[in-house]
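Hey, resending since the last one bounced:
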Amino acid sequence: MEYHFTGTGASPDFTFIADAIVDSVGNRIFYSSIKKTKIKVKSNTAVLLITTVVEGVKSEHGYSIRKSDEEALKAAIAEIGLNVAVTKRPKLRIHFKKKTVVVLLVLTFAIGCGTAWRVNNANNEKIRAQKENAVNTIIEIAKSYALEDVSVELRDIEFDGYEWYYADITCSNWGQLKPRQMLNTYQKMDDSVDSADLRVGKKKWVSLGDIYSGGDTYVVYASSNTVKKNSDTIYDDYEHSETHLSVSNRGSSSTSGKTSTSNNKDSYGHTKGDAFAIAEKAVKGKLKSPSTAKFCSVTEATIGCSGNTWVVRGWVDAQNGFGATVRTQFAVTFTFASKDMYSLDSCIVT
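The structure tokens again:
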């Protein structure tokens, strides 16, 4: 059983195989980790949204395809046995009849304008109430985890057809937590926010955003177990993250019966320099402006292998979509199948 789908926009291609969904950038989502799937239909695009939970960590994944492939996607999901909800945008059909009386046209226009104004007013009021509810709910969630002097601001996000809000939290005592406590507290709050299923309007959901405390900005990446303070990494437990565990599960089956080699070479003779070159190529594929990329040196990177699986972690300076040079961290995992062939397990750029 294998179903392949071609992505649209910024979405990679993806394939349903025996035990997982794999995509063209090397991500692998095991069916056993999938808790919820949903298909959203928008214009000529169908979007598959996937919620996974690995080791108690929840993550969201999304793939977009042509609307004409929607039925094939639902068939693939049905054969695998996953539950899926389908949300379609309602189509508004208006039938006009020819009128000969000018007065009736004017009257109809006036009534329509008045109705539209009232509907728009009602929608605006409803959205305002939903925003207020979202803010108050997240404030209460934050306080339940002992955060003090809490305020919340919704940050509007739009990317590749998706729209949502990040709820950024400001409090007075986040900086008093140890980095590991920050990660644990954030993950628990994120689960609580997700369980609250907060919505603003018909198509915008609310997710936990950044933390501001004591003049510092804290960004937490739950999927890679990373905490940053003002762009500096203060906690990093990638080895126990959802991404690494998924790769390890795959690697353990492919390397069973083999003896792990040293951290300097694999069984095919590849060195750390070879591994870094492959990681650099994978990371460039995810940058907005790869030609401007300046990578850390091999000695500055963290590189290791187990069997024939390599993990390369480091940083790269490159221009973003606005032309500003920013530094990002990357983690690339791949496995050699022979001297000249390898498969990319994951490539994370944060």
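The mean pLDDT is 81.

Sorry for the duplicate.
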